[in-house]
Amino acid sequence: MKIYTKKGDKGSTYLIGRRVEKNHLRVEAYGTVDELNSFIGRAIANLSQKTCSDVIKELTEIQHQLFDLGADLANVTESPSYKTKEIYIDTMEKAIDTYWAEAPEIKTFVLPGGSVGASDLHICRTVARRAERRVFACAKEESIPDEIIKYINRLSDYLFAAARVVNFRDGNTDILYRSNHDVFK
């Protein structure tokens, strides 16, 4: 079987249920989710198995969930069965709370950086925010389940908390943004 079909050579692609142009809002949304998934793979490759095995395990599970979420975004059939579940969000929230308690308290924003793995997670966070904007734009035009919107919103919070805990475990101090007021209370 060949990997190329030549069916998209004129600027269209298949969703699950119909053919659309490649710049369709759903294609933009699941394409950005796919990009995020690739960056998460890079972050995993740069994390220490010794200090971050729990983060690596969670990120690998998130990669699977992002494939499900992308399939959900691509599904435009009349009665779709969605794979993105509320339990995914609950699990992420528990991890966020754990990492937030483990890393030193902050009251201001931090500059993205630190270890290579933490820096990669900050990149993932910003790509997750872009994916969220794409998903939300799509939701303004088409029916998108609330779980998808909540999941992608919570994911950027998870990635921020994970980046901070990775830096902490690797012995790096977050560089606090010079600000004249506290933002985390």
From TrEMBL:
Homotrimer. It is an enzyme of class 2 (transferase). Its EC number is 2.5.1.17. It catalyses: 2 cob(II)yrinate a,c diamide + reduced [electron-transfer flavoprotein] + 2 ATP = 2 adenosylcob(III)yrinate a,c-diamide + 2 triphosphate + oxidized [electron-transfer flavoprotein] + 3 H(+); 2 cob(II)alamin + reduced [electron-transfer flavoprotein] + 2 ATP = 2 adenosylcob(III)alamin + 2 triphosphate + oxidized [electron-transfer flavoprotein] + 3 H(+). The keyword ATP-binding applies. The keyword Nucleotide-binding applies. GO terms for biological process: cobalamin biosynthetic process. This is Corrinoid adenosyltransferase. Pathway: Cofactor biosynthesis; adenosylcobalamin biosynthesis; adenosylcobalamin from cob(II)yrinate a,c-diamide: step 2/7. It comes from Alteribacter keqinensis.
